[in-house]
């Protein structure tokens, strides 16, 4: 059977098509939009306006049953509209038109009656935990990240491994091992020093006498060292006492020369005169040798000393390379060199102001003017051979230094 295609019948419907702006704009939509523009929630409005969030929600939904007393509805609507920046009178008129609310006097009996809430209203909106404006409580596990859990686990494992390793190492350190020795244990038949006493005890009293307590003398012999009968004394001045002045020193040389100078059969007075003559000659020769030199130290003069008549930089270096002294000597300042095996070496600037004192006698200067001089061996023989005796007449500062030294020596 061939089915014939048939077109459906078009039923004409009388419906009015509206435009893009043909919708009903209610007061609650405008208020919710203004509140969303301000970025406020119902709880924020409650905290700032001191109006319950249930009343704010009832104003936006035009719900009259949420209010306990109708006399406060006008104030709530106007305050909320003023908070949103809307016209309070127009907002209240729109609320009355949409909710069917009729303003009344506060003393009217209808204003005092509580509005009854039907069972279908669902109770207090804030009591509903699933309300959109109620903040959600976050659980304990929401703030825990899996990566952090892994890091904590690795840290705990690392601490455990390190603790176990340290404990094992401490046990190994404190372990004591006993190793066998090759020397065999020997048994002594008799104690040294007690054989005779034991034999005497056996001979006198038999084996029973060994159980008696030892005497104090025996204990002293065991536990106290034997005292020396004669103390040994070593004289501290023994080597000095063995010296003979007639054999060692200047007087010994004078006595040796005495037989050649004195006639045979001369008395002891002649020997004394010869000794005095030899000492006088020796002192006279020393004074004549130093008569032309300038002394800047007294009788106890050091071997070698450095002094400056004007500020000069000096550096004294030992034979092993260590620095003994490195500074600027002020005018009149002096430095006594220590006695060493190898003589130190001097390097100085402003060498014309640096002088040397060898056994109290001044030599120098180390150079000319402000020149830099180095590698000067600070040995007494080397300085006396290399430098001439100092002349105070050529240097006024040296003359002042010598004058001060003479006053100090006097």
Pick out its properties.
410 residues; alpha+beta; 434 Repressor (Amino-terminal Domain); four-stranded antiparallel sheet; 14 helices; 8 strands
Explain the overall architecture.
By secondary structure, the chain is an alpha+beta fold. Among the domains are: 27-123, lambda repressor-like DNA-binding domains (434 Repressor (Amino-terminal Domain), Orthogonal Bundle), CATH 1.10.260.40; 304-409, no CATH class. It has helices at 27-38, 42-49, 53-61, 73-83, 88-99, 109-112, 146-174, 195-205, 216-223, 238-241, 250-261, 268-289, 380-386, 396-409, and strands at 304-308, 312-317, 323-329, 334-336, 345-348, 354-358, 361-363, 373-377. Strands 4-1-6-7 form a four-stranded antiparallel beta sheet, covered by helices on one side. A four-stranded antiparallel beta sheet has the order 3-2-5-8, with no helix packed on it. β2 (312-317) and β3 form a beta hairpin. α2 packs across α3 (53-61) and α11 (250-261) crosses α12. The chain is elongated and about 160 Å long. The N and C termini lie far apart (163 Å). Mean pLDDT is 74; it is low at 117-121, 260-271 and 282-291.
């Amino acid at each position: 059977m061939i089915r014939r295609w048939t077109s459906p019948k078009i039923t004409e419907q009388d419906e009015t098509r509206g435009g893009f702006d043909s919708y009903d704009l209610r007061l609650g939509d405008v208020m919710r939009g203004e509140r969303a523009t301000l970025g406020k929630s119902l709880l924020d409005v409650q905290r700032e306006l001191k109006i319950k969030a249930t009343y704010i929600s009832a104003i936006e939904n035009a719900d009259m049953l949420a209010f306990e007393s109708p006399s406060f509805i006008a104030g709530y609507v106007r305050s909320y509209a003023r908070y949103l920046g809307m016209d309070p009178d127009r907002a209240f008129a729109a609320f009355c038109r949409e909710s069917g609310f009729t303003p009344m006097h506060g003393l009217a009996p209808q204003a005092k009656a509580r509005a009854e809430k039907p069972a279908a209203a669902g109770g207090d909106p804030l009591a509903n935990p699933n309300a959109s404006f109620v903040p959600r409580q976050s659980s304990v596990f929401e703030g825990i990240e899996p990566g952090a859990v892994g890091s904590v686990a690795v840290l705990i494992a690392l601490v455990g491994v390190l603790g176990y390793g340290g404990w094992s190492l401490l046990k190994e350190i404190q372990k004591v091992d006993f190793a066998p020795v090759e020397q065999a244990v020997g048994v002594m038949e008799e104690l040294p020093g007690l054989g005779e006493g034991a034999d005497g005890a056996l001979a006198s009293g038999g084996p029973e006498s060994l159980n008696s307590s030892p005497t104090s003398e025996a204990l002293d012999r065991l536990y106290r060292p034997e005292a020396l009968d004669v103390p040994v004394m070593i004289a501290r001045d023994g080597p000095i006492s063995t010296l003979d002045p007639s054999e060692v020193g200047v007087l010994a040389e004078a006595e040796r020369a005495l037989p050649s100078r004195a006639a045979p059969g001369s008395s002891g007075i002649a020997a004394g005169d010869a000794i005095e003559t030899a000492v006088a000659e020796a002192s006279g020769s020393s004074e004549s040798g130093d008569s032309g030199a300038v002394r800047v130290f007294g009788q106890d003069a050091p071997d070698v000393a450095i002094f400056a008549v004007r500020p000069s930089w000096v550096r004294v270096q030992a034979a092993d390379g260590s620095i003994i002294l490195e500074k600027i000597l002020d005018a009149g300042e002096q430095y006594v060199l220590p006695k060493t095996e190898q003589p130190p070496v001097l390097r100085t600037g402003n060498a014309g102001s640096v002088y040397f004192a060898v056994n109290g006698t001044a030599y120098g200067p180390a150079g000319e003017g402000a020149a830099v001089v180095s590698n000067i061996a600070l040995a007494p023989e080397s300085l006396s051979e290399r430098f001439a005796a100092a002349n105070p007449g050529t240097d006024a500062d040296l003359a002042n230094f010598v004058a001060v030294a003479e006053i100090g020596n006097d």
